[in-house]
Amino acid sequence: MPPLSLRARNLRDVPSLALQSPLAPTSICPRCLIRIEARGVRSSRRTFSSTAAVSSAWAAAVSKLQNTVSDILPNRPPLPGGSNVTIDPLKLVGRELKFLNKNIRQLLGSGHPLLDTVAKYYTQSEGKHVRPLLVLLMSQATAFASKSQRDTPNPTPTATSIDTPISSPSVLYDSNPDHPASALLANLNQTSSTDTDPTILPSQRRLAEIVELIHTASLLHDDVIDTSTTRRSAPSANIEFGNKMAVLAGDFLLGRASVALARLRDPEVVELLATVIANLVEGEFMQLKNTASDEKHPRWSEDTITYYLQKTYLKSASLISKSCRAAALLGECAPNVVEAAYAYGRNLGLAFQLVDDMLDYTVSGTELGKPAGADLELGLATAPLLFAWRARPELGELVGRRFKEEGDVQRARDLVIQSNGIEQTRALAQEYADKAIDSIKDFPEGEAKKGLEEMCVKVMKRRK
């Protein structure tokens, strides 16, 4: 199907754009979601217990996480109408996140010392962990949602099976000193928390780790492509170890993620996450051009924004949307719940990247933890500039030559600041965030659902 074109609206009514192409077949607009009827509802097979009191050990870990992401996920203001909900998403899954980096580092162990060091480099500092956080929240929020028996060839993964090789260890020759096959059973207690949330399945917990592995691999590759110098307020891996080592480490992370994914023994989930990896590459190729035709003297058109959003979905929103869908699938949720989880992730993922593109114009490099204004330096025309271009046609010449001439970057930046491109970007991001909240309106009421809603607010207010 051809992409829906952008409808002309005034500045206060930013367009809702569809994303329809062979690369991203599902429309961004929730109204266009395929309706799938539940094939039978059954009760959950899980046994749930009341939440235990927060121990000092994991409370300290949560406190550290809160300090790390305080600027990324700031406190929300009171809601309209006098409601003052104070749900902290980090506290809801704090004990799970406490073990995230430890488990990831165990999955990444290599018998080659240098590879082991480079592969674990970005796990040494606390990242945002937004993607695994969303997976864990979605798992909690759908734990009591309607269920449906899935036609899968394997039983529900257990804490043991997700660490058990499918092939013989002697065939795999998987040299991982942090998780040797010969001592597999002895190591199982080391790769998961013994004080886990009963509303989150072992497979969903492992999914959160896989998602972070894929995201970290993309960072390693992106930093090489973008010739980045810093990441998380430290030298980027390509600077610290060189381009070749950074690329190989990213490949290694994708390999380890693929092994962990296969051991979930769920073909549909494997297909989803494998598609994410392909989407990341497809999006990167789309980013090589600012417009579909890559003209030397382009003119603004509705297709310009459509192309940008399609690229954004592939590079950023695909991982969030498909991982949220995978979490619901692993929880054996009914089809309508799975579709709602997918819509939430897709819309929030687009909102997240739109805000990220906006911050490149509004926040300093010190706050971002990476160089500010990098997009223009790389020749990239993102949402703020694309919206400004509609009112300032002279930007077309700069876009066509990818801001390569002296003074182009500063001139483009000045034109964006003088226009309403940033405000329009914020409005479009808010539209997607609102759609994300609306998509989960039928989820069972509870803290996890409120946590997902809170994430939409915090994404809109983040500063990193």
UniProtKB/TrEMBL annotation:
GO terms for cellular component: transferase complex. Its cofactor is Mg(2+). Keywords: Isoprene biosynthesis, Magnesium, Metal-binding, Transferase. Residues 145-173 are annotated as: Disordered. The keyword Glycosyltransferase does not apply. One of its GO terms (biological process) is mycotoxin biosynthetic process. This is Hexaprenyl pyrophosphate synthase, mitochondrial. It comes from Cyphellophora europaea (strain CBS 101466) (Phialophora europaea).
